[in-house]
Amino acid sequence: MDNLKSSADKGTDASKQFISKTFEHTKLKAFQVTALSLSMIVKLFIIGSLAVLGFVFLAFFTAIALGEYLNNVALGYLIVGLFFLILSLLFYLFRKYFDKKVITMVSKIFFD
């Protein structure tokens, strides 16, 4: 009877240790995913902000240059605006492709 009780106690201790280690591993994995996600968001914000600022200046330059070339500044702005609308439409049409890419990238981070 003591042998059975000893085996049960060892099983209980092993289960408690397993649950404790699993919880610690889950906390570490959550920290890793959170840190990587936050790092990616910060980098995306900084690089994206600088890229958007560059594109704004490039768009103004292009619109003015096209306007001077066509002898109509308004027409230059119209062409650049239409270009951005067409580009936006293309991104909208291919949004599911971008969703799949993002999900694939996040799943590699999370399940790695």
TrEMBL record:
Transmembrane segments: 44-67, 73-94
Keywords on record: Membrane, Transmembrane, Transmembrane helix
Domain of life: Bacteria
Protein name: Competence protein
Species of provenance: Polaribacter atrinae
